[in-house]
Amino acid sequence: MKRYYVIFEGRVQHVGFRSRCYQIAIEHGCTGYVRNMSNGMVEMQIQGEPLQIENVLLKIEKGNQFIRVDNVSRKEIALQNEKRFLIL
Questions:
Q1: Sign of the CA dihedral 45, 51, 54, 59?
Q2: Which of these, 64, 68, 74, lies nearest to 10 by C-alpha position?
Q3: Among 11, 36, 55, 74, which one carries the catalytic annotation?
Q4: Distances 43 to 1, 14 between C-alpha atoms, Å
Q5: What is the pTM for the complete model shown?
Q6: What does the pLDDT look like over 40-62, one tens digit per residue?
Q7: Which of 18, 39, 46, 81 has the fewest beta carbons closer than 10 A?
Q8: What's the pLDDT at 64?
Q9: Which residues contact 32 (CB under 8 A, 6 or more apart)?
């Protein structure tokens, strides 16, 4: 089990990005949260098995016709005891 703090840069606000992150994370059984930052970026904390997390991030990075992810940075952080993924 791993937990990461992730920052997404690009066209990631006002395009359904957080909802997409939520849906993909739930599909892969991950917990954590996603929320907008005041600087136009989006932050996420995601927890799950390493392969689950990699699959989530790969799908999110692909974007869609509205979402464009230009950069993703992440660092491993301490695990938390939680039961679900939230949009904040």
A1: negative
A2: 68
A3: 36
A4: 20, 14
A5: 0.92
A6: 999 999 999 999 999 999 999 99
A7: 81
A8: 86
A9: 3, 25, 44, 45, 46, 47, 82, 85, 86
Nearest to 87 by CA among 11, 30, 36, 27: 36
The mean predicted confidence, pLDDT, of the chain is 96
18 is catalytic: yes
Question: Tens of pLDDT along 55-88?
Answer: 999 999 998 889 999 999 999 999 999 999 999 9
Q: Residue 78 class from Cβ within 10 Å (0-12 exposed, 13-18 middle, 19+ buried)?
A: exposed
**Residue 26 token pair:** 């739930």
